[in-house]
UniProtKB/TrEMBL annotation, chain B:
Annotated membrane topology: Multi-pass membrane protein
Name of this protein: Protein translocase subunit SecF
Origin superkingdom: Bacteria
Single GO MF descriptor: protein-transporting ATPase activity
Extent of the signal sequence: none
Cellular localisation: Cell membrane
Xref: InterPro entries: SecD/SecF_arch_bac (IPR022813), SecD/SecF_bac (IPR022645), SecD_SecF_C (IPR048634), SecF_bac (IPR005665)
Assigned keywords, A-Z: Cell membrane, Membrane, Protein transport, Translocation, Transmembrane, Transmembrane helix, Transport
GO biological process: intracellular protein transport
Transmembrane intervals: 9-30, 122-138, 150-172, 178-199, 230-247, 253-280
GO cellular component, one term: plasma membrane
Organism whose genome encodes this protein: Candidatus Shapirobacteria bacterium CG06_land_8_20_14_3_00_40_12
Main localization of the protein described in the UniProt heading: membrane
Length: 447, 284
């Protein structure tokens, strides 16, 4: 028997080491073994001054962890293209601020560009009360300052809000901020407003037009308050006074700040999953995956004997590596993502089958075992390379990495594509590098 | 093994499958899920409510365009045409009133415009991947007969998958949704994956053997890789079957679609892609 080369042995030990590390990473944070409670070692380390604490938990998407996702159509009709980028950006930060008020830890707000429109996508993991979230984000959509005009007494009975209010042109997009403050003289609570340059001009005009009359502050077609204009205000600084205590002044400023959305949005899609259903899906997915894996393992061992057994070890390493990468990158697992993973396991075995069939052929044509093995790997590599490249090409088109708006960008399709692409790359690695090395070291004795 | 002599049989089988697909698509069309046509779905838990009619009444009282209430043992799925946010709040309050353990397990609503967009984007994705694969395979094999053969076989598979879903929709209520689109796009890649392995063998044989007959090369290549093709499909089929059986209702049709795609892909690499390449070669 030819002794193993040093390179082969080194690679073998590297693989064993890597597998052990992955095994440790994939341990639950704490578990009981032989009556003792053990903890997963932490992987925190110091790099220069920076402390690095990798978060090794698997991230689950909304469909698995439970939570809500909302999609809003953004109305961009009243905005010029030059303002649009700014308006979208400020819309996003505004919504993020509203969500922070709501206290969601890992929320995600994004804007997606469709062929002829823009969408705002809000993901709220762990939120069970979607109605509250919708109310907070979607309903306080527009803030307007309206002059109240006098109407003849005989029309009062039939007058609606729209008849007595006249738009001053001043709206939420002009408001820089609203803040509760005590009046320096009286100590009574007031709400101070700061307008931007355009808003300052409009406000000056409005206070001139409605001097000694009232201006209504309208939030979503509801009058919040209607203070009387006491003087013309040229500097864009206004104060709303009334019967405020600290609490109501704070609430009004929050409402005004929240109302200052530069673009109005409309709810078009809602998705909400309870946490129980999510857990159920995870369990079902894991069970299906394990049963499938068991069948594949039986099939491989039944078909290829000892070789099959080694490929099952390769598959086990594949599983560990993939899960470790999911934790490190991190990949957010959705249910279609789990399906993509399960499917990629099937494809990972393919490299092994290709190689083993090649190996059998070479042995049939009378080559000795070790030569046949090396030839098998070498020749199978061409097909593995080309075939998997094709799958990666399709995977990339599904994933749409450049966010091209004529291709899909939905989370479901992407979640699937990510796990499929990762699975194929790792599958090639374990199929060609790991299994080959294991065979060289462990199957050589069959000489 | 002279597999290529079965070409007429393959032709009949494929024509038959495509024929059924066209027939079913024209005659029965598709069952679209709310992903495509808009609408709302509630999945609710009401452990103390034993019959659907009570739930139906609450929904009908709100005039929300109730389509169906289904389910047993306290978990119900309710489908609606559409629902406004304020009506949703009222509904949830009323449901809670008749069953104190009422809980929303899942709720989703989609506008109808999303579906059109999804179809458009899927078509773009198919065109885009076909072009990419045609170029990639064509250049890897320095021969566009192979690229065209692989891409046409891929169209064959995806069309049959679409047709079968029209049939499954008519007889078993399978719906077209975002997941189906994902399955369709996966079928594209799985189909090509298998075809490329067989093509690769033809390329290799051509390099090492003296024969110039493409049919003979094709026969030898198919004979040599067929065990691998079948074994490989078997492993994927095992994984998918366990998903169909154990994966829960959300993904059952998704796994079924992938299953059809994988089986079709294995069949078409031998029975469609190679005969097409032979056809192109004879024409030249």
């Amino acid at each position: 028997m030819i002794p193993l080369s040093k390179k082969t042995l080194n690679l073998f030990y590297t693989i064993v080491g890597l597998t052990l590390v992955c095994l440790v990473v994939n341990l639950p944070p704490s578990f009981t073994l032989f009556g003792k409670t053990l903890y997963r070692p932490s992987f925190d380390f110091q790099l220069g001054a920076a402390e690095i604490k990798p978060n090794l938990d698997l991230r689950y998407g909304l469909d698995l962890a439970g939570g809500a996702s909302l999609v809003f159509e953004i109305d961009t009709k009243n905005t010029t293209t030059s303002n649009l980028t700014d308006a979208l950006e400020s819309l996003k930060t505004n919504i993020e601020r509203r969500i922070n008020l709501f206290g969601v830890s890992e929320s995600n707000v994004s804007i997606s560009r469709e062929t002829d429109s823009y969408r705002l996508i809000v993901e709220l993991p762990g939120v069970s009360d979607v109605n509250e979230a919708v109310k907070l984000i979607g309903q306080t959509a527009s803030l307007k300052f309206m002059g109240i005009i006098d109407i003849p007494p005989e029309a009062t009975a039939t007058a609606t809000l729209n008849d007595i209010l006249k738009d001053t042109g001043l709206n939420g997009s002009h408001l820089v901020k609203a803040k509760p403050e005590p009046n320096p003289n009286t100590g009574a609570m007031e709400v101070s407003l700061v307008f931007n340059a355009a808003g300052t001009k409009l406000f000056e005009k409005a206070t001139k037009d409605y001097l000694n009359k009232r201006i209504a502050i309208v939030l979503d077609n509801q009058i919040v308050t209607s203070p009387t204009v006491q003087t013309v205000i040229p500097d864009g600084l206004a104060v709303i006074n009334g019967d405020f205590d600290i609490k109501s002044a704070k609430a009004l400023s929050a409402q005004l700040n929240a109302g200052a959305l530069p673009l109005s949005i409309k709810l078009i899609e809602q998705f909400q999953v309870g946490a129980i259903l999510g857990k159920d899906s995870i369990n079902k997915g894991i069970r299906a995956g394990l049963v499938g894996l068991g069948l594949v393992a039986l099939f491989m061992i039944g078909n290829y004997g000892y070789l099959g057994f080694i490929s099952v070890i390769g598959l086990f390493i594949y599983g560990l590596l993939t899960l470790t990468l999911y934790r490190l990158i991190p990949v957010t697992l959705t249910f279609p993502g789990i399906v993509g993973f399960i499917l990629s396991v099937g494809m990972a075995v393919d490299s092994n089958i290709l190689i083993f069939e090649r190996l059998k052929e070479e042995i049939r044509s009378g080559r000795p075992w070790n030569t046949a093995m090396e030839l098998g790997f070498g020749r199978a590599w061409d097909s593995i390379k080309d075939a998997n490249a094709c799958t990666i090409i399709t995977g990339l088109i599904l994933f749409n990495p450049f966010n091209w708006n004529f291709l899909n960008s939905s989370g479901i399709v992407r979640g699937f594509a990510v796990t499929l692409i990762l699975g194929i790359i790792i599958g090639i690695f374990t199929g060609v590098v790991v299994t080959r090395n294991l065979l060289r070291v462990l199957a050589r004795k069959k000489l | 093994m002279n597999i290529m002599k079965f070409r007429p049989l393959f032709f009949v089988i494929s024509t038959f499958l495509i024929g059924i697909s066209i027939f079913s698509i024209i005659k029965w069309g598709f069952q679209y899920s709310e992903d495509f046509k808009g609408g709302a779905t509630f999945e609710i838990k009401m452990p103390n409510t034993k019959n659907n009619s009570q739930i139906e009444k609450i929904f009908n009282d709100q005039l929300v365009g109730l389509k169906s209430v289904s389910g047993t043992s306290g978990i119900y799925t309710v489908k609606l045409l559409d629902i406004a946010q304020d009506k949703k709040l009222t509904l949830e309050k009323n449901l809670k009133a008749i069953d104190k353990d009422f809980e929303v397990l899942q709720f989703s609503t989609r506008g109808p415009s999303l579906g059109k967009e999804l179809i458009k984007k899927t078509i773009y994705a198919i065109i885009f991947s076909s072009l990419a694969l045609l170029l990639f395979i064509g250049s890897r094999f320095s021969d566009f007969s192979f690229g065209a053969g692989a891409v046409l076989a891929m169209f064959h598979d995806s069309f049959i998958l679409i047709g079968m879903f029209s049939l499954l929709g008519h007889f078993f209520g399978a719906q077209l949704d975002t997941l189906f689109v994902t399955a369709l796009l996966t079928t594209l890649s799985a189909s090509v994956h298998d075809t490329v392995v067989t093509f690769d063998r033809i390329r290799e044989l051509k390099r090492f053997t003296a024969t110039h007959s493409w049919t003979e090369l094709a026969n030898r290549a198919v004979t040599e890789v067929i065990v691998r093709s079948i074994n490989n499909s078997m492993t994927i089929i095992f994984m998918l079957l366990s998903l169909v059986a154990l994966g829960g209702s959300t993904t059952r049709w998704f796994a079924a679609a992938l299953l059809i795609g994988v089986v079709c892909g294995t069949y078409s690499s031998t029975a469609v892609a190679i005969p097409l390449v032979l056809l192109f070669k004879r024409k030249k």
